[in-house]
Structures
1.
Amino acid sequence: MPVPKRKVSKRRRNKRHANKGLDVQAITHCPNSGSPVMPHTVCLESGYYKGVKVLRTKQDRLEARGKKREAQQAAQKERQDAVQSQIAAKQAAKEAASNKDEAK
């Protein structure tokens, strides 16, 4: 296994590592939400990329869930109203039948 012939000085090591520095990335702002976004990436808050909606955000999912829940509650209320009207109709029919029996 190869072994270095001499110790690499701190100065020589640091000069070698000086070229590995990272550049600061440019940050842009989303035109829809105004949040900071890296260039060429989708905004995670609004879900837009270049003016086109490409991602469902958490807010979109919450709104869809709310609409679905409202529709389910409305359907359930309609079913309950239908059942109650059927019960009321049966009771009215029983009362009418009992009134006929009493009239005889």
Note: The longest strand covers residues 28-29.
2.
Amino acid sequence: MLKFILLALLFVSSLYAEVPNEITYQGRLREYGRAITGNKMMSFKIYTQETGGNSIWNSGDVSVAVSSGLFNYTLRPTGIDWRQKDLYIETTISNKILSPREKITAQAYALHSQSSEKIYSNTDSVFVIDGTTITTINSETVSINGNLTVYGNFNIVPAGTVFIYCSTYAPDGWLLCDGSSYQRSQYQNLFNAIGTSFGSVDLNSFNVPDFRGMFLRGWDNGAGIDPDTASRTSMNTGGNTGDKIGSVQDDQFRHHNHMENVWAAGTYGVRPLRGSAEDPSTAEFGTTYAGGNETRPKNANVNYIIKY
């Protein structure tokens, strides 16, 4: 009578977007206390209970290479609901069923992400999982207990969003707001958001905003707070003018005046010079200037970046 002793390890493959369901079955096989070398006919079945019952998956008979008692075989089960808490693998070697069955650990439940389904919660949120995309509908929060690793793009900031950034170069996914021209096809999402508001040199390109040295102002949008919306000009050729996003204004003082009293000495004494005098005299007067090259508040240099 053959007597087999099997020490087995189950490893669930790392599952990312397009990796198939795989379980790596590794074991050490001994016959009458000696390590086996050669090919052995084996079969693997998956059950929902430790003993008895009917299998829910069967590999059929397969030839497995064994070297010095060690073997390694990859199972590719299909049609299994990995949400079940208890799943067991039964191994048969040379028509001899080995017991007990090996329980599949919780790691295998990562395979569940390969299945497409809808999950409804009591908040009427819908999660659609297709192995590459998770979409939430009418969900205010998404809670993750543990670490989140993202492969590919994870967009939670909409294209066209402008942030302050304290570095010389823009990070991945962002462009400097320096007025540069880009191809519309290269940054389609950003172009869809801002269009040619900040200019365009041709029908295939668009400009990002040029906020270098600029203070930003909220769009008036008919509120009447900006009295000079009609005279606003475009930032670059082809950009918006008037009361539209992307238009600009040059620096300006609000109009005002100053009153001066000028005293003149003439035949009839010293008096304020108002209109014509009995003995008018000629006088030159004025004010001295102070300040710098522009009117500005205290400020610090930063970069503006825009999400694409």
Note: Confidence is low (pLDDT under 50) at residues 12-20, 108-126, 128-132.
3.
Amino acid sequence: MMTSLEFSDEKELAWLIERLPPIVTVHPRSEAQYYGAAWEIARALHDPPKPIHSGASWVHGWRIEPNTFWQQVTSIEIRSFRHLVATQKQADLLTSFGFKDVHAVGSPYIYATPLPTTRVPNSLLVMPTHALAHTIHNFDEDIYAQEIAALKSQFDVIVVCISGNCLKRGMWHKAFEKHGIPWIRGAKVDDQNALCRMATLFQSFEAMTTHVLGSHVPYAGYSGCRVSIFGTYNHLDSSALRYDPNYNKNPQLLHANVQKHELEWVQSQFPQLFTDPKQGYWNPEWYGDLLGEPFRRPPEEVAQLLQWQPSLATYLRSRAEWVSNDLRASTKRMWHRIVGTPTT
């Protein structure tokens, strides 16, 4: 059943809500199940949706290039674990850090199958910056909401997509409601239909605008939206991430990622995105390249690479074996360093 954290007004958004797939909450046991990625492959193989136990990780989102640290591609450190990534460049980076089983297959989003839908003429989807588990929100919501409200005369339909984390923290919805702009919740990591939901959402609008660089940019563009970065840019600085434990351990990683969200850098790398929302940048092939479309595999190959297992017990045994192998390899390298024997 829908909650108050799903949308602003059911009657006003009935046309959009009825297009979207139902929310099916699951308990992801691996990264390959996040946002329903594994279920998209199952549907493509005409298998009924069911719990799928995968023996591999599958990196979600858009990893903005250039990347120099393995943590910019994956959060799973086990070198012997199987890793599916979007592009060959990402695969080569992980391999250079000692990851032994890496495959470029494209981002999970390119495998999403939207429900049949049509784009609403002269419509705009707005995607403001979203909070993460450890980020500090220091953006003036009212300023951005006012900038979007000023576009009302240019569009017949404007809807804001707000992340679940933001809604839980009370962010964004009040600022837009103040200007009479409706909103709907975005994807949830534990929704089996999340990728289908977002693909259907994007294909319901002609344009998508934002004020921050992120995965939503190539997602929307790949789905056929005209994409723009408009309004007061959300400048991500290190203070917003100072409580993130991953960055506390890796300050050099923090600097590298923050740099790729600085306005000057984004403008130099993606000047075509800085345009009026009415125009936007339309080039599905270019956005597809960002998401690894050239490395797309048939669903049968993806299922094989995911090492789907018939039971959770089998999956746990295989994962324990990988961890054990990685531990033995680490112990062997340490022993060779102590006794002075070269590693092979």
Note: The chain is about 35% helix and 10% strand.
